[in-house]
Write a structure and sequence with these properties.
Helix content is 30%, strand content 24%. It binds 2-acetamido-2-deoxy-beta-D-glucopyranose (NAG) (3 copies). One 2-acetamido-2-deoxy-beta-D-glucopyranose (NAG) binds next to loops.
């Protein structure tokens, strides 16, 4: 609810820079939809989080095209922004604003040039979750633009927000929850609730089961091929290709097999979050009914065949100048260096785990090139005779993580 006694003044940038007319717009505070709903941003309300823009710099710049740069941040936040205003004779009353959760406030040169060539100024805000900082800056930038272009406020300024992937969520959120801030919104590479990590899990499952048939699958999908990649597969392969297709990977994408299949590096980024959310999942996967690791099916046997879980003995250790271990030479390593190995240091008996190691195996000299070992307890415990457990139990289990999720609403027909 709006507290009538809490009318906020819009402290325009002249509060600090003391330029231009001292005009104050009395604005109501923006309010949420319902008690816990998203904040609805209108053209005239003030967002309580982003209510005081502070200008740090106004300067004329010439790269990549001549423009006026206005840089600032929102008081009491770490959110900064840049506004790039092309020359007056280039401006056609519009602006563009790209959004992405991890972007910084510096627009790429081509983005600024694209805006100028299209009669638009460019607004860029440091990445946030949501659309509120972007909306506040879009509104503030209109004031800045009117000042710069000596526009009295009579003509409308048309704004366009766009973003891909994580930015697609922000773009849709902006379109749904703002009025009179932007006039158009374009979501690119639309993300969905299954995008991460489940899309990556499904693609890695496709890789594990289908890669031995990659050449036939590609040939079937290429011009002149049969068009039906299922024909080339056994029962487990057919089931997995159908599962992965239902989860959203376009069938035709497998024409270039590695494109969809190669998700393991990105999946590795999300594995720690899965472990934290679901610490017993890998044990469940390999021991409980209903999970592929313990399933009597052909697919289950393919998982068990891919399982690596060995104890190697450290034969020699190489150290750097600060006496930190850098490379372990082992008595054995897995015969096939697939993705997703984890390394755990054990005592000499292989009974007691000491700590986790990171690194890359090489089959040339049976070595494990260690990631920097910052934990001194672990660094000191590394020595000849100790064991290193090398396993992919977690990684393999995660490839069917989507099978154990319950969507909270309808529409997820692949689950
Ligand atoms: C910025 O916020 C601080 C802390 O609330 C306040 O003291 C200061 O006056 C604000 N600056 C402006 C320009 O409003
Ligand atoms: C902002 O992000 C771009 C693109 O990632 C990067 O090239 C640039 O160095 C970053 N600028 C600052 C000031 O961090
Ligand atoms: C170092 O590793 C040991 C064994 O995993 C762990 O108990 C300890 O908390 C770690 N220390 C730090 C500072 O992370």
């Amino acid at each position: 609810m709006v507290d009538a006694g809490k009318m906020h003044r819009w402290p325009l940038f002249m509060a600090l820079t003391a330029v231009s007319a001292l005009r104050c717009v009395v604005a109501e505070q923006c309010i949420s939809k319902g008690t816990a709903g998203p904040m609805i941003i209108t053209a005239s309300c003030t967002d309580p989080l982003f209510n005081t823009p502070i200008i740090a710099l106004e300067a004329d710049r010439f790269d990549p095209v001549p423009h006026r740069l206005v840089s600032g941040h929102w008081n009491g936040t770490s959110v900064d922004f840049n506004i790039y205003l092309p020359l007056k004779n280039q401006w056609e009353n519009r602006f563009f604003q790209s959004v992405y959760p991890t972007q910084n406030s510096t627009a790429l040169p081509e983005v600024i040039a694209f805006g100028a060539a299209s009669g638009a100024y460019t607004v860029q805000v440091a990445g946030q979750l949501g659309y509120r900082a972007d909306a506040a800056t879009a509104k503030f930038a209109k004031t800045v633009a009117r000042e710069y272009y000596d526009d009295t406020g009579s003509s409308r300024i048309y704004g366009y927000i766009y973003g891909g992937s994580g930015g697609s969520y922000q773009t849709i959120g902006a379109a749904e929850n703002t009025h009179g801030v932007w006039d158009g919104a374009s979501a690119i590479v639309q993300a969905i609730p299954g995008s991460v990590p489940l899309n990556l899990c499904a693609r890695a499952l496709g890789n594990l089961i289908l890669r031995k048939n990659a050449i036939q699958i590609e040939a079937a999908l290429r011009p002149g091929g049969s068009g039906d990649p299922f024909l080339e597969l056994g029962q487990a392969g057919r089931a997995v290709l159908k599962e992965v297709t239902n989860l959203g990977v376009p069938l035709q994408a497998w024409e270039d097999f590695l494109e969809p299949a190669n998700s393991e590096n990105t999946l590795a980024i999300f594995e720690p979050a899965i472990k934290e959310a679901d610490p017993t999942y890998a044990d469940d996967f390999w021991t409980k009914p209903g999970y592929l690791g313990n399933d009597p099916s052909e697919l289950g046997s393919l998982f068990r065949a891919a399982l690596v879980d060995i104890f190697a003995t450290i034969e020699r250790v190489e150290y750097d100048s600060e006496n930190l271990p850098t490379t372990l030479f082992l008595d054995k390593i897995p015969s096939e260096l697939t993705a997703g190995f984890e390394f755990t240091l054990y005592d000499d008996t292989g009974k007691m785990a000491i700590g986790n190691l990171g690194g890359v195996l090489s089959s040339e000299d049976n070595s494990l090139a260690l990631s920097p070992v910052s934990n001194t307890t672990i660094a000191r415990a590394i020595s000849q005779g100790r064991k290193v457990r090398i396993d992919n139990r977690w990684h393999l289990s995660v490839l069917s993580y989507h099978r154990h999720q319950l969507p909270t609403r309808s529409g997820f027909y692949g689950f």
